[in-house]
Amino acid sequence: MKNRLPLFYIVTIFFWMSLYTYVPYVTPYAEQMQADLRLIGLIAGSYGFVQMAIRFPLGIISDRLQKRKIFVLLGLFFATISGVSVFLWANPIVLLVARSLAGVTAATWVTFTILGASYYKPEDTIRSIGLLNAANGFGRMAALLLGGLFAEWLGFSYAFLLGGILGLAGLIFGIGMRESKPDPEKTSNPPNLAALLEVAKDKQLICASVLAIVSQYIMFATTFGFTPMVANDMGASNYQLGLLGVISTLPALLISPIMVKVVNKIGVTATLVWGFALAAVGTVLVVWSQNLLQLFAVQFLSSLGLSGLMTVLMGLSIKAIASERRATAMGFFQAAYGLGMFLGPFATGWISHSFTMSTAFVVTGLIGFVGLVSSVVFVKRGYILQT
């Protein structure tokens, strides 16, 4: 199984590169197109809304078929279409549709995650998720650096074109990926729908999903939502906007592979508390940032917390789930946090429009503290297990 990993991680990197070459430019580009703050919030939130809608059924279908690879390839196809379409027809409506298609691609991360975990033993779930998230982080960071250069030299639209080209490259490499042959017993007698839906009643899965909603609300309200607009208003160049994205992604590359050691050292509760604390404080401090250097520093702080959180929560969501139902569980988990990805930028757009952007960032920080308290309650009540 291990000899399948190099190609799998190469495709993982292309997958996330195809989605992130242009992320720092979505809201500034929409603003340049003269979209108002509410439409900008909808454009940014559409990415999460689509994921919320299709990830759970996608996981169920994948478990019923016991197939993962085909969905990964479909995702890369839509990534190609998403990037190229904005390059060819740049207007707010096309941008909205393209972000929705990118959401379809990101939704296939459900099957991507389970395919990756299948290369490891069940007891190595958090480790496999950590390594997968590190590849995810590397791909996003490389994309943001390259996208920043393209945007600086050629303009925003070329960062989208680059994403489409990288999606096509990932699709070509992905054809060569292999997945384990399904267990004949499981394919001849696949889990019925009622049995798969039972997965959604697992308390640890539900609680991990609730916390992930809060985590993704913060991330997509700030990092992949309105923080680039704050930087743009400070006079950031296109390359500096890309660099802000790199700083947002670097923590995932650094911390994801070691999260299992962190959890073993300080425990699940402390890990979750520290993650939400860093995210909340970093978000609120955006309001008091006076220059790009300060903004970069608080963004790194927030991203450090969020990156650790997502690795642990993803691992917890499927740790106690049988292998033939894991795509369903991961689909439920990722569909749930898609709600946060939608609500974060959508609510921030409306709050910014009705009050101020500073108010929206403070509200987002307070939501982070709600996640912190909820983490403690869930563990104390035994809904999330320490081991």
Topology:
Blueprint: H1 5-20, H2 26-32, H3 37-65, H4 69-88, H5 92-107, H6 109-117, H7 125-154, H8 156-174, H9 184-188, H10 193-198, H11 203-233, H12 238-255, H13 259-284, H14 292-319, H15 326-354, H16 357-380
Average pLDDT taken over every residue: 87
- The total beta strand count reads 0
How many angstroms separate the termini? 26 Å
Look at the helices and sheets and give the structural class. mainly alpha
Silhouette: globular
Alpha carbon gyration radius: 19 Å
Low-pLDDT regions: none
Helix fraction? over 70%
Main β-sheet description: none
Q: Write the H/E string, N to C.
A: HHHHHHHHHHHHHHHH
**Can you count the helices?**
16
The percentage of residues in β strands lies in: under 5%
Structural summary, described in words:
The protein has 16 helices and no strands. The chain is globular, with a radius of gyration of 19 Å. It has helices spanning 5-20, 26-32, 37-65, 69-88, 92-107, 109-117, 125-154, 156-174, 184-188, 193-198, 203-233, 238-255, 259-284, 292-319, 326-354, 357-380. By secondary structure, it is mainly α. The model has no long low-confidence stretch (mean pLDDT 87).
Key features of this structure:
387 residues, mainly alpha, 16 helices, 81% helix
Provide a quick synopsis of the model.
This protein is an all-alpha fold and 387 residues long. The chain is 81% helix and 0% strand.
